[in-house]
Amino acid sequence: MPSLSNTYRLGIKELWSLIRDPVMLVLIVHAFTLAIYVSATAMPETLNKAPIAIVDEDDSPLSQRIAAAFFLPNFKPPAMISLADIDSGMDAGKYTFVLDIPPNFQRDVLDGKSPAVQLNVDATQMGQAFSGSNYIQQMVLGEVNEFVLHYRTSPVEPVELALRARFNPNLNQIWFGGLMEIINNVTMLSIILTGAALIREREHGTIEHLLVMPVTPTEIMLAKIWSMSVVVLFSSAFSLVFVVQGILQVPIEGSLGLFMIGTVLHLFAATSMGIWMATLARSMPQFGLLAVLILLPLQMLSGNSSPRESMPEAVQNAMLLAPTTHFVILAQAILFRGAGLAAVWPQFLALTIIGASFFLIAAAQLRKSVTQIG
């Protein structure tokens, strides 16, 4: 049986080692402060301050009306350019959209013709290009119809759709981005910190010192798990309270205490996974490459970036073996929808089983690795 005293003192040693590692400290501070803010406020899928230019070859009241329809926050004030400046401006990346209004545009519209308006789109800005082109088309058609009919009209639909958005009524991207980034960073740091702690022991030669002490591999492993879990747990709690709720003003619907309990279970599984990965790697570069290969699928396929329902059924079933899938489900349920224990206990149970499995696998692999070193 592992000694609690040995486990505690070895964990304190790990915390002192972390304090003496400035690179890891900077990574922790950045991951739970600036990275959260940047991820929440960067909205690549939202049309926000898109640069647009207009070539007005008609110079009519209708063309001026169309040009005046573009304003903040969706678009920057339009730049009025000549036809010869289109290619150079788009090649330089100055404009995402260039709208070319042809000569005699107003006259053709009033004559009942169908003049063509050219929209040039910089498709390298893929998120804004897709949503912006459709938005510009609707704006131009709306201004033309209002100019012809002398009033703005909307088509009468046979069915009225009453739309009510729950949990995020304004569809604010900031509410989603910040919380999901915390979930990503909890997983990333719990794996990196524990794995790096074990790799550091091997590279500095202190693992041999531990072997001659009256400690067991299980105590070494438990010490690294509880010490690094405490660091990540307090960092995530600080980020939730001061960055997400304080700076970003994101409301938390559910219980922070219940979320922290789920975070502890996830940390148990993720730190065990980090130790297992560290026993496979022989150096820090190898561990870094292995972490990239494992972290990317864990984050991309867990339902964090896109709904699990949109993935192939085989991927959904396979990702049920990953702790991040259950952590994302319980985090979204608690933080977004205010769910209680009755709704998330299956995820709590799954994390406990997955964590225990990874712990046993990592412990066996660590004993084997320590025996080979001895």
Polypeptide structure, described:
This protein has 15 helices and four strands. The chain is mainly alpha-helical. The protein folds into two domains: about 230 residues, no CATH class; about 100 residues, abc type-2 transporter like domain (abc type-2 transporter like fold, 3-Layer(aba) Sandwich). It has a four-stranded mixed beta sheet, covered by helices on one side. Helix 4 links the parallel strand 1 and strand 2. The chain starts with a helix and ends with a helix. The model has no long low-confidence stretch (mean pLDDT about 85).
What features would you highlight for this structure?
4-stranded mixed beta sheet; mainly alpha; abc type-2 transporter like fold; 374 residues
Shape: elongated
Helix and strand composition category: mainly alpha
Helix fraction bin: 55-70%
Question: Order of helices and strands, N to C?
Answer: HHHEHEHEHEHHHHHHHHH
How far apart, in Å, are the first and last alpha carbons? 21 Å
Number of separate domains: 2
What oligomeric arrangement do these chains adopt?
single chain
Brief summary of the model shown:
With 374 residues, the protein is mostly helical.
Write the layout of secondary structure elements.
Blueprint: H1 4-19, H2 22-31, H3 34-41, E1 52-56, H4 61-68, E2 79-80, H5 86-91, E3 97-101, H6 105-110, E4 118-121, H7 126-149, H8 173-204, H9 206-211, H10 217-247, H11 256-280, H12 284-300, H13 313-319, H14 323-336, H15 341-373
Parallel strand pairs: 1-2, 1-3
Antiparallel strand pairs: 3-4
Helix pairs in contact: 1-10, 3-8, 8-10, 8-11, 8-12, 8-14, 10-11, 11-14, 11-15, 14-15
